[in-house]
């Protein structure tokens, strides 16, 4: 369902007592890339948030988590085509807590729920292939996050705190079995797990206890598998692997940390105030960090927003161990952003948020000037979306 761009998307966020705004008069002088929405898709007529999103490796498909539902879309020449399945496809009794596609097969998608289940689907048949869960102690561990390793053989899920315990649970995808877990390396809920993009046996995990743990998953015993721990002294929200084994961390207090995973060193830390300054905004309390990505051939990118005035401001900056540099300005946003995806090869962004809207962004130089035009009418987007990409 395509939307007109003059729609007033409501947000349930409280009105902010502080007025945010730009700190410079000419934004284009600082942000050299201007992004425009070329397509919007309504995902629900109800007041729901899109909280999770994932893309296939070739960006031919995306999936979203919206309440107790997973929705999957083909990214086509004419826009987004929703999968309408059978037998309550993608419908769950509990909220979605994570999503992931197979690296080598865009037709296999996973969705986890807060009830401790990780469902595996084949999109060709709209069928649920298997449900992974750890009930080895006669209790189901609630899943907060999960990831699939680079060769699509191993799945790791991180749990919420349960009876003062937290768990990293491992499953063999091909044999459909629970393999065991690490139960002592974190003291509070696990908020993110990320396998290394090329080394299928290396895993990092983050928690509200402030620790980033790096594991060698070839080792069966937890004490042998734990290679080292990094103490952020903060509550961790998101982790991301980057070029040359750099590791970025976004905290729940909206700080950005960059580590060297080989040397185990903190390279740089930016607080919320410095990021607010980098995106040229006034209000620190409104600054919200969305996610980090690999950018170009050897750079890293941070997508950040201001939640003021229904999230009207989205901007991107590159970061290194030295600087934060303004890159992109996104014009015309009208919902508070909760998740995003980035196609690095095509330089396309998807954003998802509290208006239950999927927005596709591309650079304005070749974007449609009429904001109501769809992807079907934009031949430049058609050409770009045919290409394959690799997020790493």
TrEMBL record:
Residues 9-19 have a biased composition (Acidic residues). The keyword Transcription regulation does not apply. Keywords: Repeat, WD repeat. Residues 1-21 are annotated as: Disordered. It holds the Pfam family WD40. InterPro entries: WD40/YVTN_repeat-like_dom_sf, WD40_repeat_dom_sf, WD40_rpt, WDR89. WD repeats lie at residues 183-225. This is WD repeat-containing protein 89. It comes from Clunio marinus.
């Amino acid at each position: 369902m395509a939307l007109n761009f003059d729609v007033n998307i409501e947000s349930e966020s409280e009105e902010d007592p502080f007025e945010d705004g730009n700190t410079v008069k000419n934004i284009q002088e600082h942000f050299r890339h201007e992004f425009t929405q070329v397509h919007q898709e309504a995902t629900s007529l109800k007041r729901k948030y899109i909280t999770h999103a994932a893309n296939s490796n070739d960006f031919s498909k995306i999936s979203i988590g919206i309440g107790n539902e997973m929705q999957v879309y083909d990214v086509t020449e004419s826009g987004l085509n929703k999968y309408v399945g059978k037998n309550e496809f993608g419908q769950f009794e509990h909220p979605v807590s994570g999503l992931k596609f197979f690296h080598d097969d865009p037709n296999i998608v996973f969705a986890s729920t807060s009830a401790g289940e990780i469902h595996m689907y084949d999109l060709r048949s709209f069928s649920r292939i298997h449900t992974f869960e750890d009930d080895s102690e006669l209790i189901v561990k609630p899943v907060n996050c999960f990831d699939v390793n680079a060769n699509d053989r191993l799945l790791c899920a991180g749990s919420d705190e349960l009876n003062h315990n937290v768990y990293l649970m491992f499953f063999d995808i091909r044999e459909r079995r629970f393999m065991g877990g690490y139960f002592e390396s974190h003291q509070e809920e696990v908020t993110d797990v990320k396998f290394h993009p090329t080394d299928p046996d290396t895993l990092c995990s983050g928690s509200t206890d402030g620790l980033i743990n790096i594991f060698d998953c070839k080792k069966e015993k937890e004490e042998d598998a734990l290679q080292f721990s990094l103490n952020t002294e903060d509550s961790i929200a998101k982790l991301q692997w980057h070029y040359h084994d750099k590791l970025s961390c976004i905290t729940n207090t909206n700080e950005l940390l960059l580590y060297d995973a080989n040397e185990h060193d903190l390279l740089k830390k930016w607080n919320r105030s410095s990021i607010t300054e980098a995106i040229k905004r006034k209000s620190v309390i409104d600054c919200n960090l969305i996610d980090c990505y690999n950018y170009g051939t050897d750079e890293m990118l941070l997508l950040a927003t201001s939640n003021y005035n229904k999230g009207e401001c989205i901007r991107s900056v590159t970061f290194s161990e030295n600087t934060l540099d303004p890159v992109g300005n996104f014009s015309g946003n009208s919902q508070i952003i909760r998740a995003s995806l980035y196609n690095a090869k095509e330089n396309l962004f998807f954003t998802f948020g509290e208006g239950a809207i999927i927005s596709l962004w591309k650079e304005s130089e070749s974007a449609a000037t009429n904001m109501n035009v769809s992807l079907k009418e934009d031949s430049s987007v058609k050409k770009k979306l045919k290409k394959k990409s690799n997020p790493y």
